[in-house]
Amino acid sequence: MLAKKVLIVEDETILRDAYAIVLTRHGYNVSTAANGLIAMDQIERELPDIILLDMLMPVMSGEQFLDESDILKKHKSVKIIVYSNISDREKVEKLLSRGVHEHVVKSSMAPNQLAEYVKNALHK
Amino acid sequence: MSEPKQYTAEYIIELENRLLEAEDTLEAIRKGSIDALVVKDQTAGQQIYTLKSADYTYRVLIESMSQGALTISEEGIILYSNNQFSMMAEESLERIIGRKVNAFVYDEDLPIVVEILKQRSANIYNSERTVRLKGKSNKEVMLSARKLPVSNDNAYMCLVVTDMTERRRVENAKDEFISLASHQLRTPATGVKQYVGMLLEGYAGELTADQKTFAQTAFDSNERQLAIINSILKTAQIDFGAYQLKISEQDMKQLIEETLIAFRPMLMMRRQTISCEFEEEVCAMVEPIEISLVVSNLIENASKYSPEGGQITIKLKREKKFAIVSISDDGVGIKDEDHAKIFEKFTRIDNVLSDTVSGSGLGLYWVKKIVELHGGEINLSSMLNVGSTFTIRLRAC
């Protein structure tokens, strides 16, 4: 079976690398983007199975990426996990109602938990 | 023209006495203990001279204060106002003196003024309350009241009025800085969590027992740092006023019981017992997540500041229109003078356990704010070395 494709969209290099190492070890085919704009370009070239999307990013934020790419409507099969430190519940609820699979608080997530979230999202 | 006086011995004694009297009067004037002089004159009758010079220096001081200063009567009528207050109230002095102080305060804040005026029965009353002044700028000011000793059955009060605009600006800038700094601190701390976590979870190969212990200690310490950063951010959010509650009807017994589940392991480890005295069907209008966190915070404190084997009691009852939750411990207790301080931001009280128990000094500040956002209140009764009881009153439904 072909490895599932994960796109990590995160502006912090150290976190982007950490998540990439963890998910590669768990057998995923990982690609990365440093902001929403680069992610737009990536999904044009190759559609991933799941996107890990940070919210606060320079150039293009996670929210802008969802609006601009319209991925939630255009590619319903692509799972999206928003992981951020935003604690604004209203914002989170809005994201979930738009079709985002899950919201994870970045600072509360240990490496293996990340792998667990990805696995669960892909199996649903 | 009258006859020149003969300088008889009697006349000289009389002159000496008058001189002594005049010297005494001068001395009294210098000391400021004379407000006015009554001079009897054969031709002009009785004349009163007010001694402006006696309080001149104080007047200059009061007029050059950056705060407003008022003297008010028992009924709240302004007897004296300095120029600074006139500028704050955006009214001329003529339109201030003789009017009631209430006329300058926003209607919604009038109960605070009434309360200040009511407290006059006390000998000396010192209070600081914030109200908004009427006028274009709608200034927020702090009133510091001080009752003067009663003279001739007249009770006066001095009010010092401090403009809070600048203070608020500084506070907001500080809150903004804290929020920004915390955001910036959270990212590297999250990085540490990921990489140390990867070490612990074997992503870099098996660790020796020592390596594992060291990495775990680093991980735990970083977790504590993240918790502090998160509580600072949460507090900043409340202080900004950017906190919206989603209130709904909640069964308080169920809410507390669910909250308690997470504490069982911690309490078992510390051999502490918890006893619950819950009335059935106590319903309150609350945001369940936040009130659960409030209760968690209080239980955690009760456990942390109690000895091993201690007893924690949680009570829930309905009293008229309120749902009342109280959390008691038999721990170190809090000194009387610290009771008010304990709900302040970044406050940690010195006690026998404060060196070993960790905390950000934000927990109870946050708890109080959340309870107050619900329109409720929190009280503390505590005795040193006996224990503490925190009681929350929330709106019942």
Short description:
Chain A is an alpha/beta fold and 124 residues long.
Account of the protein in words:
The complex is a heterodimer of chains A (124) and B (397). Chain A is of the alpha/beta class and 124 residues long. Chain A is built from six helices and five strands; from the N terminus they run βαβαβααβαβα. Chain A has a five-stranded parallel β-sheet with strand order 2-1-3-4-5, sandwiched between helices. The longest helix of chain A has 13 residues, at 13-25. Chain A is globular. The two termini of chain A are 18 Å apart. The mean pLDDT of chain A is 89. Chain B is of the alpha+beta class and 397 residues long. Chain B has four domains: 9-52, no CATH class; 65-163, PAS domain (Beta-Lactamase, 2-Layer Sandwich); 168-240; 248-395, 2-Layer Sandwich (Heat Shock Protein 90). Chain B has ten helices and 14 strands. Chain B has helices spanning 9-31, 52-63, 83-89, 110-118, 165-200, 209-240, 252-261, 264-269, 288-304, 363-373, and strands at residues 36-41, 45-50, 68-72, 78-81, 126-132, 140-147, 157-163, 248-251, 273-278, 283-286, 311-319, 322-329, 377-383, 387-395. Chain B has a five-stranded antiparallel β-sheet with strand order 4-3-7-6-5. In chain B, strand 11 and strand 12 (322-329) form a beta hairpin. Chain B is elongated and about 125 Å long. The termini of chain B are far apart. The mean pLDDT of chain B is 84.
CATH class of the domain at 12-91 in chain A: Alpha Beta
Percentage of residues in helical conformation of chain A: 40-55%
| Whole-number mean pLDDT of chain A | 89
User: What integer is the average pLDDT of chain B?
Assistant: 84
Binned strand content of chain A: 15-25%
**In angstroms, what separates the terminal alpha carbons of chain B?**
96 Å
- Strand line-up in the sheet with most strands of chain B: 4-3-7-6-5
Query: How does the overall form of chain A come out from the CA principal axes?
Result: globular
- Tell me the CATH topology of the largest domain in chain B: Heat Shock Protein 90
SSE order of chain A, one letter for each helix or strand: EHEHEHHEHEH
Q: How many alpha or pi helices of chain A?
A: 6
Strand order of the largest sheet of chain A: 2-1-3-4-5
Which structural class best describes the helix and strand composition of chain A?
Answer: alpha/beta
Number of helices of chain B: 10
CATH topology term of the domain at 12-91 in chain A: Rossmann fold
Q: What is the name of the CATH class of the largest domain in chain B? A: Alpha Beta
